[in-house]
Amino acid sequence: MTTAARLVAGTGVPSPLRVLLVDGQELLSRGLRLLLDQEHDIEVVGEAGDGRAAERAVAERLPDVVLLRRGSRAVGEVCRRLKSLLPTTRIVLLTEGAVLSASELAEVTGSAGTDGQVPRDSPVDDVAAVIRAVANRDAA
What is the pTM of this model? Predict the structure, then answer.
């Protein structure tokens, strides 16, 4: 069963995708949360301002998808740590502009990689679509 196909116990209704936002800019993170919370099949389960807070939140909240802003050189290390804590969690990188090429993405994330990426200035519909795609194990 894919992450997106989980059902709310006893109802036959799909449970929402659990998303954790990781962005050091609180205003932007909260705005994204408000927009994503309007999606019927997405639930933002928390926000973290940095990698250490993200590690705690992943361990506590068990998100299906982590939306991680590319904000520092340590993003590859953060990806590795998050994947080691919860290997089923999918990671989407929010880029600062255009989508990165495969070589640029490898340079940023190292061997940890990500499951998808989306430019930070994308419409919320595009961000939600990428979240759904990676949750269903489709590359985005």
Answer: 0.82
